[in-house]
Write a structure and sequence with these properties.
Strand order of the largest sheet: 1-5-6-8-7
Shape: globular
Radius of gyration: 23 Å
Largest sheet: 5 strands, antiparallel
Structural class: alpha+beta
Number of helices: 14
Number of strands: 21
Mean pLDDT: 88
Oligomer: single chain
């Protein structure tokens, strides 16, 4: 067996690439390298004596936070809007992935592969039960894997696991599952984590988000207390959770988490300053105000690989012509867009491989400057000598509005008239796959091919640009089968160039996101790329939060 990870393996290799759409998601903790958490591993395991300190976490209280929107989802496996970012605290996943991009054990305690990464074995945690009393085991994992890859389920996990067929899934014993893949995949554990990766008991859920706590079955640290879609979800401590904290007792530390949707920055600022909220995700506009009170508010800044691309639907005129797509890219003054809209984020170059990715290809990103005359020439060649007029759909509520406005002004110089169609957030995302031209949003995922398999592979579940290029698909397969870093970079160079020249994506920058928490909130030393680590947060004044 070539690759082995076990429950005692902690994160290594700091990694600055990739996150979470959710993330005007607020990363909920600092971005320092993530050490192994005390007590992780076997159910009920107490931390080693040296992990104890004089400042053990306090227990109790209610943590008050937010999530941008939490609509009802009929099947968590088909979640395309992010309610599962909250749901993962009730029904956890096989692994979790932190800032370094390294998969960490969760319901899977360890894994290993053969030499060519075509066969993987997952070893599951022993002694874990669902919150309805059912024991967790291999049958549950197998049912979920088959449900995710079932074409009729509509799960985005199918794109992450497109190398896996139902007949390649085998139960070895009650706590061991073997996966025989259709092609090599060196990053299989990473493919098992995303917000639709919540593990259901065998047979699935009746209606997880019904609002009835009995329907929200999972193995996670919290129970659902109540849920009003698009308004609020309240989580209550699961007294029988299998992981333990630094004090040797079962997590979580807090008794409840109240998650509210629909905040704007004015409300966030008032709530944080007035003590009505504990941890929120403010926009860049209110960060200077919050930083005036370092004794009361801690502000975190993250550049994680979250992108808000301008997306062209390539099956719709005029975007079906590659000359038009290239013209729309050429009007970008990337440095100026970044300076005006996202000064804390790196410049982007119209692809989805972050500069923080170890295999990023810098050579493909050189020499891509604004060229208005060339844009005009390409439009003329495409049959638009007098320019074009396009409608740009934009969700309300964050910096994407400013991106649209800046792009509109730049495009006008090339004879491109951009009409901004500003939409309520929920209205935009209800139809996000249908807009011919839009400012979208995409969580950073690791490896970078995860997002491209979702959004750019022929028939991909989230292929909002309707892109299909067999050469590109073959490059994705090659990258996913390549473990050697330098060889992978060679493939990424070709992927980046093909996206820049052919795809329907404009990516002028990588977005920075922000978190802000009150001083009494104690954050864990890592953040998660999928769900949140609310179970590892604690309050210095829990008696005031009951």
């Amino acid at each position: 067996m070539r690759s082995t990870v076990n429950a005692k393996a902690g994160p290594t290799m700091p990694f600055s690439g990739a996150v979470a759409l959710t993330a005007v998601v607020f990363c909920l903790a600092g971005c320092a390298p993530a050490p192994e958490f005390p007590g992780d591993g076997e159910p009920g395991a107490a931390p080693e004596p040296e992990t104890r300190s004089a400042a053990l976490p306090l227990r109790g209280g209610t943590l008050r936070t937010e999530y941008n929107w939490i609509p009802y989802v009929s099947d968590p496996a088909t979640d395309g809007v992010g309610t599962g970012q909250v749901g993962l605290s009730i029904a956890e996943s096989l692994v979790w992935v932190g800032e370094d991009g390294v998969p960490q054990p969760q319901l899977a305690r360890s894994w290993e592969s053969n030499e060519d990464a075509t066969e993987w074995i997952l070893h599951l945690q022993e002694g874990v039960t669902f919150n309805n009393g059912k024991p967790f085991g291999a049958d549950d994992v197998i049912w979920n894997l088959k449900h995710w890859i079932d074409p009729d389920s509509g799960s985005s996990m199918a794109a992450r696991l497109e190398f896996l067929s139902p007949d390649g899934i085998e139960k070895m014993d009650d706590l061991t599952v073997r996966l025989r893949l259709d092609r090599p995949e060196v990053n299989l554990p990473l493919a098992l984590y995303d917000y639709p990766s919540m593990i259901a008991p065998e047979g699935g859920w009746e209606d997880f988000y019904s609002g009835d706590p009995a329907d929200a079955v999972g193995t996670g640290p919290f129970l659902m207390e109540s849920f009003v879609p698009d308004e609020r979800m309240v989580l209550a401590r699961n007294p029988d959770y299998w992981q333990t904290g630094a004090d040797g007792l079962p997590l979580p530390y807090v008794d409840r988490v109240v998650v509210t949707a629909g905040w704007d920055d004015a409300a966030r600022l008032a709530a944080l300053m007035g003590g009505q909220a504990d941890i929120l995700g403010p926009g860049e506009g209110v960060i200077p105000m919050l930083r005036r009170y370092p004794d009361r508010i801690e502000v975190q800044t993250y550049v994680t690989g979250y992108v808000t691309p301008i997306v062209m639907r390539m099956d719709t005129p005029p975007f079906d012509d590659v000359r038009v797509r290239r013209a729309l890219k050429l009007v970008q003054d990337r440095e100026r867009i970044r300076a005006l809209v996202m000064p804390l984020g790196p410049v982007g170059h119209d692809h989805l491989i972050s500069p923080g990715d170890p295999a990023w290809c810098p050579a493909a990103d050189t020499g891509r400057h604004q060229d208005i005359e060339r844009a005009r020439s390409l439009l003329a060649e495409a049959g638009y000598p007098d320019g074009i007029e396009v409608d740009l759909a934009v969700p309300d509520g964050d910096f994407r509005i400013y991106l649209a406005q800046v792009y509109k002004e730049m495009a006008a110089a090339a004879g491109i008239t951009v009409n901004i169609d500003l939409l309520p957030t929920t209205a935009f995302w209800d139809q996000w796959m249908e807009w011919p031209f839009s400012v979208s949003g995409l969580n950073g995922r690791v490896p970078a091919t995860a997002n491209m398999n979702l959004t750019l592979r022929c028939g991909g579940e989230w292929n909002e640009s309707h892109y299909c290029n067999e050469e590109f698909d073959a490059l994705l397969d090659e990258a996913d089968a390549t473990a050697d870093l330098e060889k992978r970079r060679e493939v990424y160079c070709r992927i980046q160039t093909l996206m820049q020249e052919d795809s329907g994506y404009l990516v002028p920058f990588w977005a920075a996101t922000f978190g802000a928490s009150r001083a009494e909130v104690r954050l864990p030393p890592a953040w998660s790329r999928g769900g949140y680590l609310w179970h590892r947060m604690w309050l210095s004044n829990p008696a005031d939060r009951n």
